[in-house]
């Protein structure tokens, strides 16, 4: 918990020494750290902050140091058990079992909790046997004109030629989501009429906006005044971008990665599944 108080810290430290610190070899002490030296006292969020810190420590196999500590407090009898303060970052000791950590969150109001976190099981990925590398791999290229098509194909050829170690089968689609400025009045109108997938995805975005804004998505697409407003054009572009992604996916184009610029990062995160 580590509030840095003369009351709370000694009580908690002595409790840890009397429990986890007993029956341990001095060569393998319980390592003790505190989140508050990283981010201060987050009040009601302090507990979940400690959980996040330890989840990341479990994941990376590193015990992070407790910041701004010159020496352990003299108000605790550290010799009564095998508990040591993390004065420096350390690699997580390899003890041939899952890593485990305890996280405490105590409040003066009586909201007290202690949870034990354990490393997730390591899932071995099956090794895929390589098949016959022969055969033709089609790369479908599209453009608005013959000239643009040749230029696009030339760029693709140049990119692949510059990476001789890349297999044609590894070349994949990436969805790029731009920031503000890609809009025009009347955009998406034809797609709404021609693509049921696009129309439904756009309508879903419109329903999500209801109650949060004083304009409708359908109206904003054709309104030059509305599209000139930052608070309108950004959610409109988000709706168009995620709806376009839905169209591509409906015809089998699945991105291997997504990239977003500026507010396009929000649409990219949504398409990647990081945001609902």
Automatic annotation (TrEMBL):
The keyword Transferase applies. GO terms for molecular function: fatty acid synthase activity. Keywords: Multifunctional enzyme, Transferase. One of its GO terms (biological process) is fatty acid biosynthetic process. It comes from Streptomyces chattanoogensis. PROSITE patterns: KS3_2 (PS52004). SUPFAM superfamilies: FabD/lysophospholipase-like, Thiolase-like. PANTHER family: FATTY ACID SYNTHASE, INACTIVE PHENOLPHTHIOCEROL SYNTHESIS POLYKETIDE SYNTHASE TYPE I PKS1-RELATED. It holds the Pfam family KAsynt_C_assoc. Residues 1-119 form the Ketosynthase family 3 (KS3) domain. This is Ketosynthase family 3 (KS3) domain-containing protein.
